[in-house]
Each structure stands twice: as C-alpha cells, then as structure tokens.
Design goal:
The structure is a single chain. This protein is an alpha/beta fold and 257 residues long. It has a domain of 158 residues: Aromatic compound dioxygenase (Protocatechuate 3,4-Dioxygenase, subunit A, Sandwich), CATH 2.60.130. Helix content is 25%, strand content 25%. A five-stranded mixed β-sheet has the order 1-5-2-12-11, with no helix packed on it. The protein has a five-stranded mixed β-sheet with strand order 4-3-8-9-10, with no helix packed on it. The structure holds 3-methylcatechol and fe (iii) ion. Its cofactor is Fe(3+). Keywords: Dioxygenase, Iron, Metal-binding, Oxidoreductase.
C-alpha cells in the first residue's frame, strides 16, 4: 500500500538529497571500510555528548558555508559567527564606547575606529554593532571563563557619519579546546589548534544584510593557518603603537537587501 506522504519542507528534501548525491561521490573516492565507519560513529557520538558540536562545525564547516555564498559578493566579507556569540549584551551609550571589562583587565589597551557605509558609499548612521572578543588568557566570557558574564562584550550604534570608536584590549590568538573530541580530531589530522587574534563584530541595519564578521591583525603568526580558515584579506587591519596604547581601524561596507 502506498503510504500517504506530504513534503513538509521542500528545502529539507532538496538539501538532503543533494548531500547524499555528493556523499556518494565522496564514498566512491574514499572506499571507507567498516572499521573507519564505526570509528566515525563513535567519535560523532562522543562529539555530541561533549557539547562540542557547535565548536566543531563552526571551526571546520562554517567557513565553507560562507565562502560558497559570499566569495564574490560586494561589500565587506562575512566571517565566522563561531560558537561564542551571546544575546543580551550591554548597550553602550557614553562616548567613546568602553567595552565592559574588569578594572584590572590584562592586555594591551586598544582604541579601534570603524566606519560603516553602504556599497554605494552612503554612511550608515545608527547601525547596531555587536562586539565580542577573547581576553588576555584567550578566553571568552560566558564560556568556561572566570571573568564576569558579558566581559569584553557589548553593543552600540554608529554616529551620524557611520563612525564609531571603541576602547577595549587587543585580543590574543585563540586556541580551540583540545581536551575533547574536537581536539582528538585536530591531533589525528596533525593540525594546530590556533586561530589568529580576532575581534568579532556584527552589523545590523534595516534594509541591509546583517554582516557577521571578524577583524584580524597584520603580522599575526596564525593568519595563514587559522584552524577555522576565517581570515579574509579585507578583514585585516594594522595595529599602531600610540603612546601607551595600540590603535587600529577598519571600514565596513553593508549590502542592501
Ligand atoms: C572561535 O573564537 C571562533 O571565532 C570560531 C569561529 C570557532 C571557535 C572559536
Ligand atoms: Fe572567536
């Protein structure tokens, strides 16, 4: 008897069937034996139980998702959202915007200046900017960090010229956790576990595609071999020593919807 079926979500079917088509090509090429398949199932089970699925996918898959969709797009290239964005950050209103930090926050002080425009050059005033980064121990607040919740996280709005100025600290290279199934894979593959130092930023403006991206620093030793492959040339800035602190800047360009 034919079972009545109804496609609930055409996109799910389309994506799944395309995935299987390419999976078959991959298997024809690799000829996995049953031991390899079983090892994969056990590792994937450990990955799920460890809570590292978002970490693993954001490190090893997200960049390919973005590259396929955005590599030829005008405007600033997106980069990885990663596993460490949280909603509910503090709104910063007093200028210059000082990112919430401990009174004795370790690290080089940073003044970062940015500007937000549309692809046609129009300044985008009142753009919401979310900012998050690691601290001088390479940790993100709210995730296995002794720092107060929401440390080195905040959001603010660009001024009438699309400009903003943030006072924070310079992030350091980030080592992804190595003690779980993700680290197991990194070691097995012979990769290192580092990402170059980066600041996460998200730009939200009515009528424009939300830009989720990261800023990187010239000269960082991990730029070419970022374990998560998140670096794009247009996302690089240069740190300048100015008196007792460092300064950097970058312009961001949003695409109309
Ligand atoms: C990070 O800090 C990050 O930005 C990504 C993409 C993955 C893991 C950790
Ligand atoms: Fe990060």
């Amino acid at each position: 008897m034919m079972v009545e079926t109804q496609v609930k979500n055409q996109r799910v079917l389309e994506v799944y069937e395309s995935f299987v088509k390419h999976l078959k090509n991959f298997l024809d090429e690799q000829q996995l034996n049953h031991e390899e398949y079983s090892n994969f199932v056990k590792w994937a089970d450990r990955l799920g139980r460890s809570g590292e699925v978002p970490l693993f996918l954001d490190v090893f898959v997200e960049t390919h998702v973005l590259e396929s969709k955005y590599k030829d797009a005008p405007g600033t290239q997106p980069s990885l959202l990663g596993p460490y964005f949280v909603e509910g950050t503090q709104l910063l209103e007093q200028k210059p915007f000082v990112i919430p930090q401990r009174p004795d926050e370790a690290g080089d002080k940073l003044i970062f200046r940015g500007n937000v425009t549309s692809v046609d050059g129009k300044p985008l005033a009142n753009t919401k900017v979310e900012w998050w980064q690691d601290d001088n121990d390479g940790l993100y607040s709210n995730f296995d960090s002794p720092a107060p919740a929401f440390n080195l996280r905040g959001h603010f709005y660009t001024d009438e010229n699309g400009d903003f100025e943030v006072h924070s600290i310079v992030p350091i290279p980030y080592q992804i956790p190595t003690n779980g199934p993700t680290g197991e894979f990194v070691r097995a593959a012979g990769y290192h576990a580092y990402r170059p130092a980066h600041i996460h930023m998200m730009f939200i403006q009515e009528g424009y595609e939300t830009l989720i991206t990261q800023v990187f620093f010239e000269g960082d030793q991990w730029l070419e071999t970022d374990v998560a492959k998140g670096v794009r040339s247009s996302l690089l800035t240069k740190l300048h020593q100015v008196g007792d602190h460092k300064e950097a800047s970058l312009d961001f360009v949003l695409r109309p919807l």
